[in-house]
Amino acid sequence: MKKTLLVFVLVAISSLFWVSCSKGKTVKSVTAGETVTDADWSADDLQKVSKYMIDSISDAKFIGSAKYRQEKPRWMLSQELANDSDEHINTRVIMEKIRTKLINNAVGIFIDDQALNEALKQQSMQQSDLFDNSKAAQVGKIVGAKLILRGRISNIRKKDAQTDINFYNITLQIVDLETTQILWTDEYEMGRAAEKGTFR
Fold first, then answer.
1. Cα angle value 176/90/37 (rounded, 5°)
2. Tens of pLDDT along 107-165?
3. 39-to-30, 49, 51, 200 alpha-carbon distances in Å
């Protein structure tokens, strides 16, 4: 009996040893609510703002017009969403998330403003003697954008010894680059309060 018990204990200890020494990692899926840990900008806010703006743009009057359907104008993003908040927010991620959904939903056709310099450099190289000109990308085929998606994020924060209250305003516009007319604009507002004893 003692021998059996000793063997069982040794097996249990060795199992614990191998588990603790294994190089595997535990992966935990994070839900949207778990990304909100304080009054600052979170991944949950990114999802909510993006969804709201995508739905609003998709329902815009000019999107449903015969002129838009016929011309199929190219869009571009502004370099970034202007950040007037007191936080470091990667605003390009917000814009690119919206762009991805608009492309996938066939709402807008975008040119890649960040790839333009690379495209011009590659075209220039392909026109040299190093490349087979019959198979090279042709110069003069780049299509310019007619519309630009731009905007701004700002916040008002109020703090005291116990609470941190943060109020955000995110505004986007679609502007006709030829006329500078604003074809669509919308805003998303949200607030969050965090008690300092609860959050960091």
1. 130
2. 999 988 777 777 667 767 666 666 666 665 555 556 678 999 999 999 988 887 778 88
3. 18, 16, 20, 10
Q: What is the pLDDT of residues 61-81, one digit of tens each?
A: 999 999 999 999 999 988 778
Q: How far apart are CA 113 and CA 78, in angstroms?
A: 8
Single pTM value for the model: 0.69
Asked if residue 157 lies in contact with residue 39, where contact means CB atoms within 8 angstroms, the answer is: yes
CA distance from start to end of the chain = 54
Token pair for 89: 């927010």
- 168 contacts 41 by C-beta, under 8 angstroms: yes
Quote the CA–CA distance of 137 and 135 in Å, as a whole number. 7
Angle made by CA atoms 152, 80, 91, in degrees to the nearest 5: 70
Residue among 174, 173, 110, 99 at smallest CA distance from 144: 110
> What is the rounded CA–CA span in Å between residue 59 and residue 165?
32
Q: Nearest 5°: CA angle at 49, between 101 and 85?
A: 125
Taking domain 41-128+143-195, whether its CATH number is 1.25.40 is answered by no
Backbone angles phi, psi at 172, to 5 degrees: -125, 150
Which is it for strands 182-195 and 109-110: parallel, antiparallel or unpaired?
unpaired
| Structure-token match 């600052």, residue found | 40
Residue 11 is classified by DSSP as H
